[in-house]
Each structure stands twice: as C-alpha cells, then as structure tokens.
Amino acid sequence: MSPAAQAEDGSFPTDCPLTVRLDGVTDSATFYVIRSFLPFTKAQVYLVRPEPKADLPSRVVLKVYDPRFLDDRYPATDRVPNRPWTLHAESAAAQKRAQVASGKVDDDFHIDLLYDEEEADPSLWEEHFFRLMMECFESELEAYKRLKDMQGRTIPKLYGAGRLLPKPPDSRAIEPRALLIEYIPGVLLSDIDPTLVRPELYKPLIAAVAALSKHGVFHDDVNQNNILFTPAQAPNRAVLIDFGCAALRDAEEPDEEWDQAVQFANDVGRLRLSLEQKLGIKLDVDQAAAPAASSDAKAD
Question: For the residues of 29-61, what is the DSSP string, one character each?
Fold first, then answer.
C-alpha cells in the first residue's frame, strides 16, 4: 500500500494488496482489493479477496476506521473550515497519546479545546478525529460480539478485527483499526423491487431489531441503505448492516435510563417506517416483533 496507490478519497485501485494484522495472530495477512464502496462517510469499506491460504470466504468486506478520510473533516457548510489531514499533525497527536499511555503526562484532551477563541492546534483536531474513529470501531466490534447469536442470519458474520498496516510504515503515524465482515451480495431496501419484499423476509428482521436492546445494543442508524436483501433476484434473507453508530449499554446503566435511550433511538420504529415507505403498506410491527423478542430474552 504505497501512498500513491490510495486516492484522495481513500479508495484503492483494483488488485491493490492491503496488509492486515489481525488481533491475536502473529503473521499479517494480505487482501486484494476488488472494489471500494464509495462514497465513504465515517469508515472506508472495501470488498477484498483473501490469499488462498486464508481460512476465509473468497470475498469479504474490509472495513477500515481511518481518520484521514473521515467526512467530518469537510463540513457541508462554508461557515466551518475544512480540517485536512497532515502527517505532521497526526504524528504530534500520536506522540502525545504515547506519552499519556506511558504515564509521562496526563490526558488533558477535551473537545472544548477545539472551540476556544483562538484556532486550535491541528494536532488537537487529529486527536479528536482519531478518538471519534476509535469510538466507532470499538462500538461496532462490541456490538458484533454481543450479537453473536444473530450473526450469519439477520446481521453479517464478523470474521475478525485488526489493523491496516501502512506502506511504507513511515507514511503514517497510526495503524488504522479494521474489521473483516461477511460479504453479502444483495440489494438494498432503497433499490429493491418492492414486490420481492415478502412478510416472511421482513418479519424476522423486525423481530431481530426488536431484540437488539435485550443484548445491550441499539443500532441508531436504521434506514433503507442499511437493510440488505439477498440474493438480489430472489431474496430469502434480510440483513441489518453497518453498526458503526451502535450504542452500547454500560454495565452500571440503570434499566430506566437504558429503556429511555432505546425508545429515543426507536430502531423498530425506523425500520417500520423504512419498510412502509418502500412497500406502501401499514405494518403491524408489534405482532411481528413479539415472538422473537421474547425468545431472545429467554435465551440470554
């Protein structure tokens, strides 16, 4: 992965080799880019081909949480300045994190530092973007762990977590975190022929979404672009994808507080609205959700 290979938008050319070091594994693995799923927003998502020796399907999704390509750097208004990436600022932020980790200095970062009267140092913005991406990565990884029983059915399988290794190593001051996720060829709810979306497809999905909170998770970004049907021509499975915005219940969080957060996020209501807008019908969500939600509660 040379600096020249990766485009300004974060995409890679076809067949570009990417090196990933998976957590808990000594040797790194090479994946070859098939395509980039543009445009990127928070994370960068690639369809990749593992090496033949890898114990993985022939195609998997590599989701990279690289703050360099975070869309927050380029606000959609002229009133807020752009915050383009620089290696110098990334290096300064990384050095400060290392000092904090070693106990040499206190962690004095606070988001308010970005909005003082004087312009904040670029390294502070790099730290902010780094923490934002780490929060997304950690939330999505933990969500998949908590929803292990749903993987391969109503959510994709998670194959592992790791780091994308920069080439050359000195081209970056960080190794962006990454997830390897099941590739599901299919069609999004936003694009599907409504006549293909039958009750036996969407009812299990509604039930699964209703059960998320019982596992200490809510998705918080349910929309037509995060609901996938596979295979595209004759779907027999509906899948909720992209847990990058997922919220997680803390161990000490009171029931009432968690229930309020779940109600406010309203994953089931958003799923119902997405389906109703696409299908042009009114759904009895409570009836569809009740059986699976109660069974998941018993399983926990």
Answer: EEEEEEEE-SSPSSSEEEEEEE-TTSSS-SSEE
Q: Name the residue with tokens 């067949």.
A: 15
Token pair, residue 194, equals 């409504």
44-85 residue pLDDT tens: 999 999 998 889 999 999 999 999 999 999 988 888 899 999
In the chain, which residue ranges form alpha helices assigned H by DSSP?
Answer: 87-101, 122-146, 199-211, 255-265, 267-279, 285-299
Regarding whether 134 and 39 lie in a shared domain, the answer is: yes
C-alpha distance from residue 264 to each of 83, 220, 286 (Å): 32, 9, 17
Domain count, the chain: 3
Give yes or no: residues 139 and 177 share one domain: yes
Q: Determine, yes or no, domain membership for 37.
A: yes
**Nearest CA-CA partner of 31 in 14, 51, 47, 59:** 51
pLDDT class of 297 with cuts at 50, 70, 90: very low
> 195 Cβ partners below 8 Å, 6+ apart?
none
Q: Are residues 289 and 246 in the same domain?
A: yes
**Dihedral-angle region of residue 197 (phi above 0 means left; psi in -120 to 50 means alpha; beta otherwise):** beta
Q: Is residue 7 assigned to a domain?
A: no
> SS3 of 99, please?
helix
Token pair of 24 as six digits: 């808990």
Residue with tokens 């690289």: 66
**Model confidence, pTM:** 0.90
Q: Is 73 helix (H, G, I), strand (E, B) or coil?
A: helix
Task: Please say whether the beta carbons of 83 and 67 come within 8 A.
Answer: no
176, 19 contact by CB (below 8 A): no
Cis ω before 39 (30° cut-off from 0): yes
